[in-house]
Amino acid sequence: SAVISQKPSRDICQRGTSLTIQCQVDSQVTMMFWYRQQPGQSLTLIATANQGSEATYESGFVIDKFPISRPNLTFSTLTVSNMSPEDSSIYLCSVDVGGTEAFFGQGTRLTVV
Amino acid sequence: DQQVKQNSPSLSVQEGRISILNCDYTNSMFDYFLWYKKYPAEGPTFLISISSIKDKNEDGRFTVFLNKSAKHLSLHIVPSQPGDSAVYFCAATKANQAGTALIFGKGTTLSVSS
Lengths: 113, 114
Known about the structure:
The structure holds 2 protein chains of 2 kinds. In chain A, strand 4 and strand 5 form a beta hairpin. Chain A has strands at about 5, 10-15, 20-25, 30-35, 45-50, 55, 70, 75-80, 90-95, 100-105, 110. Chain A is built from no helices and 11 strands. Chain B is an all-beta fold. Chain B has strands at about 5, 10-15, 20-25, 30-40, 45-50, 55-60, 60-65, 70-75, 85-95, 105, 110-114. The radius of gyration of chain B is 13 Å and the shape is globular.
C-alpha cells in the first residue's frame, strides 16, 4: 500500500491567480497521476507524471494550464494556472502500486471566485 | 463518450438490507475492475476489485459480480450499515500495465438509514 499526503486540503483563490498542489508519497513510486473531479462528475485524468520526464497529458488538458513537476520518486506538484471559476474542482493525486490498485491522496478542494 | 457508466446517481437502503450498485462499461479492452468508496473531504479508498477471468469476488460484506458478455458489473453490500453511506465509484483499467490510469464512472451516492 501507499500513504499519500496532499496539500492544501482546500483553498479559495481569486481568478487569474495560480495554485500549486503538492503530493507526497511515503514510498518510491514510478508513476503518479493527477485527477480532477468537477461537481457531479467522475474523476477525470489530467496527466501522468513519470520521474525524470515530462508529464503526459490527456486530451483536453495542456501543460501551460496544468504544469506538473516530478522531481523525485516520492513527490509531485500540480499547478492550476490563471484560474477561472470553471477550475473549481477537487484535484486528486494518485499512485499506482503493482499495476492495478491505485491509492489516492485526500484531495484538494479548490474554489475560484 | 463515457467508457464507464454508473447510471444511478443515488441509492437509498435500509440498514440490514442489501445494497446493489451497478456499473456498465463500453471498452472491451478493460480487463480489471475496481470499486472505490469516497467520504466527503477524503480521497477515494479502494474497496474491492475483480479480474475479467473471474465472475465473482467476495470480501466480507462486499461482493463484486462481473458479466463480461453484458459489460456489466455490480457491487453487493450485505448487510448494509449506516457507515457504508458514501459515494461509490466504479473504475476500469487494463491489468498489470503499470502506469495505466483508472477510468472512473460518475459515482453513486449510497445512503443507508438506520
